[in-house]
Amino acid sequence: MAADSTQKKGTRQVSSTLQSYLFLYNASMAIAYLVVFAKLVSPLLSSSFAQVYTTTAYADVGWLLNSIFAFALLEVLHGVCGWTGTPLLVGLLQQGGRFTILHIVIGKILEVHDSPTVFWLFLVWSAIELVRYPFYLLSIINACPRFWMRLRYNLPLVLFPLGLFFEAKILHESLPFIREHKLYAFPMPNPLNFSFDFFTFGTFVLWMYPLISIFMFSSAFTLRKRKLVPRADIKRD
Question: How much of the chain exceeds pLDDT 70, in percent?
Fold first, then answer.
């Protein structure tokens, strides 16, 4: 009996510690994305649309997004450990894909830093997460209102395709500069007897974006149906 009591107490302590960690993680990410979103939209209140359209979004928030995306890779680990319900493949495509586009592509190519596509991509990314992280935060303390749940599972159906479109667009804009600068090129001959051409790899990924988009949209739609549609309706479908 004493052993069972000790085990239950230990389980409660682990659960409480994990809950506190997830609360702090989601709160930090929500605040970080709020700062990003505010920095992006504040020029809209003081400048003409044409001026905002040629924004220096990367210079304003690129450094912060790089840090955010590095921490967001933890979400893949959260899913693997069973702490959250995020499927491994979805987590890798979403967080790994964003980190690659921002850090490996945009961050290394000065010519695209001032591209309007960067502004719209950052805006869509931050808009998605400004709903998602507060939803997780409120769910942990069982205080999430129904309308916020609906927003969390409906908004991605609109913003995910937009985000993937802008990711593909900035990759397309970057490819000529990747080829020109021979970015991440590892030609033969070399001691490893192995060659890699990032331009060819980036072109392949660009052609794969329609399939990635279909997969991500289907995952978001399936998740919405599971969370928002009553079980009786799902069975009739």
Answer: 86
Q: Say if residues 78 and 84 touch (Cβ distance below 8 Å).
A: yes
**Per residue in 189-224, pLDDT tens?**
777 778 888 999 999 999 999 998 888 888 888 888
What is the DSSP track for 1-23?
A: -HHHHHHHHHHHHHHHHHHHHHH
Residues with Cβ < 8 Å from 194, sequence gap 6 or more?
186, 188
Rounded Cα–Cα distance for residues 116 and 95 (Å): 22
Partners of 186 in beta bridges: 196
Q: Which residue has the tokens 């998605």?
A: 128
- The model's pLDDT over 111-164, given as tens digits with 9 standing for 90+, comes to 999 899 999 999 999 999 999 999 999 998 899 999 999 999 999 889 988 999
Q: Is 74 exposed, middle or buried (0-12, 13-18, 19+ CB in 10 A)?
A: middle
- Alpha carbon separation from 54 to 37, 66, 112, 118 (Å, rounded): 17, 21, 11, 10
pLDDT value for 87: 78
Distance, C-alpha 119 to centroid of its chain? 15
Q: CA 50, CA 95: separation in Å to the nearest integer? A: 31
Pick the closest to residue 66 from 40, 38, 90, 98 (CA basis). Answer: 98
